[in-house]
């Protein structure tokens, strides 16, 4: 066969194949396309969306519109819009004139998997008006907007949802939603709103939850004991609410994957419990302004070897800073300010040089620091007016290897007086 004839035949096969693929590719439903146009026009009416994207939106879509293909029991292929990513494409768009979200058909809403609005203060609309028809959502992120109202009961029907982030809006009221159906939920963030009342016990049924953030609201009463069921939880922030008078919850010890816990600004009171043996993976603890009393448990220094941030400031803690805190080699900030602590600060000059002025001890008039520690952390700044210790320094805690296991010997300084000599063992 002549070369030109062969080339012509191959081109013909490619064209026919391409035409067949075009014929097989389903088109977006006209009602769904119209609803998408209306959403885009409400976001930015100055852009001629219909002129710029006159064809099927799933064939040639603007940035932020994502489609996917589905087949029914007859193996008929259909296409639907599965994602409108306003957080990426419409970041800080609603900053001047007040806008609202247009109505969409239920069929269109069910096909949307991700709805994201970030930093749009002029998006002033009730939360129920946004989520009413989006029951198929996998991810709902509304952060830094003018969204108001309460959390509607219909949220409990979002059985596919994996993330609900509603932080920094104007939401208010009690949260009475039963979260028990949301078995796939991994992130629940209601922070920086004006919610009040008791936190729902049903949150304890969110067994897949990795992050729970209720901070900066007006929740009060007792922290639900049911949260102890959250075995997968890694991040817990209940700070700056009005939970009170029930102490630090001991159910924290049931959360083996917990990495950060923040309870600051709640008047929980009581002593710091001995719960740290099962929480060795924690890197951040915020227990400031909680009305805590008693001593700081030495077990925190023994078990929390990955600790990077510890905030215990503005409480009523007393006694010494545990010698075991000298083992917190990864710490980047330790704040013990404004308590009633006393005795020698157990940190070495090497530790002080690493942590610098993030070692905060001012407001504890009974504490003293070694002369070698003061200069390396800018004595007089983060240390306040603490006096210098005039007694000999006590040896640092060490790990003693015995019987194939590590056993911590702390505060175990046997002083033997032999022939007038003082020996530390």
From TrEMBL:
Keywords: Leucine-rich repeat, Repeat, Signal. It comes from the Eukaryota. Residues 1-19 form the signal peptide. The keyword Heme does not apply. InterPro entries: Leu-rich_rpt, LRR-RLK, LRR_dom_sf. This is LRR_1 domain-containing protein/LRR_8 domain-containing protein.
